[in-house]
Fold this protein.
Amino acid sequence: MALLEGVIVALLTPVDREGRVDHGALRQLVERLVARGVTGVSPLGSTGEGYSLGLEQRLAVVDTVAGAVPAGMPVIPGVFAHNHDQALAETAAYAGHGGTAVLMAPPGYYPLTAAEQEAYFSRVADAAALPLVLYNIPVFTKVQIAPAAAVTLAPHPRVAGLKDSGRDLRYAAELLDAVAATGAANDFSVLTGTDSMLVSYMLAGARGAICGSANIVPEMVLAAYDAVRAGQLDDALRHEATLRAVNAACGVGSLPAAFKSAVASTGIGQPWLVPPRGALTEAETATLLARLTALGAR
């Protein structure tokens, strides 16, 4: 597949109060974000509540997303498998519904050594129907993908990159330096899931972001990304400061409740999360929208 770079949206999944996917709102959201300049779509990750949805629901989401993006745009659904066979089965299913790669988290629950991580992802990549983007999000999986494992996997022809949502610049720098030292950086993209640290990640060698705030302020993320690429660091840091403020405003409630309320306020979908998790209260929503308005994010 083409090298992953730019601003890929970690897409929300609009649902009704009972947790049924609202495919009309989903298509409307994707079309809106494509028109506003995102370079790819990653549904069913943490922001997309993929872990909370059943397989049939997730396949239907990928169908809708793939049907709403331009030809050639990356569609990278999340995979939260517990074992090798499940990972392969879900990846094959996504391939049949329009996915172009998968965002694959390591199995959670049990700790995994670097060698165990490398063995798991390598075995999956050898047989997977789609390329893998490794997903480092230890706040949820409790497993940090070791830089040593990522470096070993980077030259694999079916491993396209890594999304780092660890919020740890020391880890990111170690990872990016190690990948660069192998010469694999030309084919292996490190993308940050923390857009409020986008400038630092890109200066260290990351190729962009897969981020949740692109659901509501894609232009802000793109402005920071473009400014770094152009060497305009003062502008990049100014845009990033605004992104930090937007993300701080969206820190209320369970992820992605604030993003859903912000999107719902534009007339796309409703603010509900997949049960049993709840949406923001009316008071929380009012405060959120006031803060976003003040930041120019609405």
The mean pLDDT is 97.
